Amino acid sequence: MPQETITLEVFRYRPEEDKQSTFQNYDVPYHEHWVVLDAINWIKDNVDGTLSYRWSCRMGVCGSCGMMINGEPKLTCAVFLKDYFPKVIRVEPLVNFPVERDLVIDMDGFMEKLKSVKPWIIRDDTDQMDQEYLQTPSQLAAYKDFSMCINCMLCYSACPVLDGDPEFIGPAALALAHRYNLDSRDKGNEQRQDIMGAEEGVWGCAFVGECTEVCPKNVNPAGAIQQAKIASTKAWYRSVLLPWGKR
Amino acid sequence: MRNPLVRPYPKDWFLRTRAYRLFMLRELTSVCIAGYLVYLIWWLYKFNQVGAEGYEELLSFVRHPVSIGMHTIALIAAVWHSITWFNLTPSVMPMRIGEDKVPDVVISIATGFGPWLVLTGFILWATLG
Amino acid sequence: MSHLTKSNEAFWWSLFSAGGVMAALFVPVIIFVTGFVLPFMMGDDLESQYDRMQGLITMWPTRVALFGVIFLSFFHCAHRIRHILMDFGVRWAGVALLILCYGGAVAGTVVAGVVLARF
Prior knowledge:
The complex is a heterotrimer of chains A (247), B (129) and C (119). Chain A is of the alpha+beta class and 247 residues long. Chain A has two domains: 5-105, Ubiquitin-like (UB roll); 108-241, Alpha-helical ferredoxin (Fumarate Reductase Iron-sulfur Protein, Chain B, domain 2). Chain A has helices at 36-46, 108-116, 137-141, 154-158, 161-164, 171-182, 189-196, 210-214, 221-241; strands spanning 5-12, 22-29, 66-69, 72-75, 89-92, 99-101, 104-105. In chain A, strands 2-1-5-3-4 form a five-stranded mixed sheet. Chain A has a two-stranded antiparallel sheet with strand order 6-7. In chain A, strand 3 and strand 4 (72-75) form a beta hairpin. The radius of gyration of chain A is 21 Å and the shape is elongated. Chain B is mostly helical and 129 residues long. Chain B has one domain: Fumarate reductase/succinate dehydrogenase, transmembrane subunit (3 helical TM bundles of succinate and fumarate reductases), CATH 1.20.1300. Helix content of chain B is 76%, strand content 3%. Chain B is built from three helices and two strands; from the N terminus they run H-H-E-E-H. Chain B has helices at residues 18-62, 65-92, 104-128, and strands at residues 96-97, 100-101. A two-stranded antiparallel sheet of chain B has the order 1-2. Chain C has one domain: 3 helical TM bundles of succinate and fumarate reductases (Up-down Bundle), CATH 1.20.1300. Chain C contains four helices and no strands. Chain C is elongated, with a radius of gyration of 19 Å. In chain C, 39% of the residues are buried. Chains in contact: A-B, A-C, B-C.
């Protein structure tokens, strides 16, 4: 029996010569156990070495192989060809990001947003950094789900708000900020409030909820943002009603 | 050479996937509810004004097929709002007991569907007597 | 980030949330009562029916509750409608949109208050 094949319709963009993107079709051997990333690797190794894309771990941990598969943001290491066969699979770079080349997106904006929320433990007693900060299991449980993010940026592609408002900090970064705000060891709520409570912060979110649906790590960024809205609302009322006091 | 390509995002994004359409449907319930509230204020005004003598005329207005249709649409929208609202509550206000998460369905029922049922029953009971 | 815009959205959002709860709990049954129970399920004795309903609405807890439901639900709707319009691309309207939507909610609330006060 001849080898069955499946067609991948792949987004191409070469920054040196192209003004616009194009699609290029590749026929790839169909194996039931192959994921889309396997097919793309096969193209790179056997047909077209010029195809550019990011990948690393092949096991849903590194978060680098996110792409749009038939219009949905997915980790390509976690979607099987058999779920689409025999139909054509359209592979595009994650939407809501500029395209650097082919399937590679420009994540500079995301990295800047991530940094802006100070996603690290903030303490005022830095002179005692050599000591441990103890935490009970229930204090850990309070934020653990929100700490599972692998920065794959699928949620940014699922979020329609980011189109109208590219300055929106976005799901992953806000969820991470909320994760540190919930951490019993952290003292940074106030420092993060200016950005969380800004138009570009939690208030950009319309609670479409798709970030939570596409998250491969069940982080529930949409929930984190709504919870952060409650916290921001309390902070806003405190700052208005008690302007002379501490926020 | 860096020359990043910015792709235009479709202006009709809210029609493009099932999830986005459902989101828009949820948001649009507010238009029906707002419309009904305006009607409710008018109805309260009329009800108070017409007195027992004019009540039959007011009722015949409400019995008109157009009115039945509008009320049906408003009711479906309002119920849809209630269902989506109560379903989202656990995400907005999660609860835990120690290390354990309270299951979403428990939160939805305790803070939403339960009180909804009780209040609806109470108001119908008070109306029907 | 390069710049941050200070936001008073927290105020509108708190009204939106409270209104969302009120609308979810009360509006379906109110629609059912005015649209279906009163015109179709109450029998023929209109006069005693009217007096009973009149008495029920006139009770101050009913009027306060109705006012609360209408007031908060209006702000809930105003907030959502504002965001729908922004989704539809009228972000440019900015403050005008704010005044239109929440102004409408204020107007509706005032009229509701006057109507209920006159019972």
